[in-house]
Amino acid sequence: MAVPASDIALTPAAAARVSAIAERQGKPPMLRLAVEGGGCSGFQYRFGLAENIDADDAVAETDGVKLVVDSMSLDLVRGAQVDFVESLGGAAFRVENPNAASGCGCGSSFSV
């Protein structure tokens, strides 16, 4: 299902990175974001290339690249933006999540 642009977003930098990875692997340019229990703050983000879109998935699109989020995870990341950042510490997808009450140094774990 299409979601309002304010629900989830993929930055152009993240879209470009997903597109490059998907092209190398011969897969469609779709990034799946899921939230799982665990991590040092209670929840953690999980990223992977999506093979397909399920009926209850929310989908946002930037520059032809889709960000796919399952309905359960969407409640925890509504309003979030997925970015791709490169720094001295490395390169990674980063979620700017307005629902996160706190996070941790690794940037992949959060609490609500």
N→C terminal distance: 25 Å
Low-confidence stretches: none
Order of helix and strand elements from N to C terminus: EHEEEEHEEEE
Radius of gyration: 13 Å
Global mean pLDDT: 84
How can the largest sheet be summarized? Answer: 6 strands, mixed
CATH fold topology: Hypothetical Protein Aq_1857, Chain: A
Instruction: Classify the beta-strand content into a percent band.
Output: 35-45%
| Secondary structure category | alpha+beta
**What count of structural domains?**
1
Give the number of DSSP strands.
9
Tally of alpha and pi helices = 2
Keywords:
112 residues, Hypothetical Protein Aq_1857, Chain: A, 6-stranded mixed β-sheet, 3-stranded mixed β-sheet, 2 helices, globular
Describe the model.
The protein has 2 helices and 9 strands, in the order E-H-E-E-E-E-H-E-E-E-E. It is an alpha+beta fold. The strands form 2 sheets. The protein has a 6-stranded mixed sheet with strand order 4-5-2-3-9-8. Strands 1-6-7 form a 3-stranded mixed sheet. A hairpin with a 2-residue loop joins strand 6 (80-87) and strand 7 (90-96). The two termini are 25 Å apart.
Write the topology of this structure:
Layout: E1 8-10, H1 12-25, E2 30-38, E3 42-49, E4 58-62, E5 65-69, H2 71-77, E6 80-87, E7 90-96, E8 102-103, E9 109-111
Parallel strand pairs: 1-6, 2-5
Antiparallel strand pairs: 2-3, 3-9, 4-5, 6-7, 8-9
